[in-house]
Design brief:
The chain is mainly beta. Helices cover 0% and strands 53% of the residues. The strands form two sheets. Strands 2, 4, 5, 6, 9, 10 and 11 form a seven-stranded mixed sheet that branches. It has a four-stranded antiparallel sheet with strand order 1-3-8-7, with no helix packed on it. It starts with a strand and ends with a strand.
Length: 119
């Protein structure tokens, strides 16, 4: 199993940047497909970005493409979501998640970190 802990959320103005971190304990990230999700108040949780086991391949939701970057530091067993040019609609609780296969659900979730973008 893997345990995930997010950090780095906070309050930022429109157009600003934040970097979220997700640290893993237990098994290494290379065993999992990884994802970032977010949930805004009153809305369903939505996919933000995904990362392959090797860390070489990423996929992004259209709403964040070109603004967010998903990366990994294998030595620290930590992944990051660099968020630039933030918009008020990016306000949400952000979650890091892991799954063992593209055919399975995300089985492991962090506790979430709040991101608030003020206009």
């Amino acid at each position: 199993q893997v345990q995930l802990v997010e950090s780095g959320g906070g309050l930022v103005q429109v157009g600003g940047s934040l970097r979220l971190s997700c640290a893993a304990s237990g098994r290494t990230f290379s065993s999992y497909l990884l994802g970032w999700f977010r949930q805004a108040p009153g809305k369903e949780r939505e996919f933000v970005a995904g990362l392959s086991r090797s860390g070489s391949s990423t996929v992004y939701a259209d709403s964040v493409k070109g603004r967010f970057t998903f990366s990994r530091d294998g030595a620290k067993n930590t992944v990051y979501l660099q968020m630039n040019r933030l918009k008020p609609e990016d306000t949400a609780v952000y979650y890091c998640a892991a799954r063992t296969s593209s055919l399975s659900e995300y089985d492991y979730w962090g506790q979430g970190t709040q991101v608030t973008v003020s206009s």
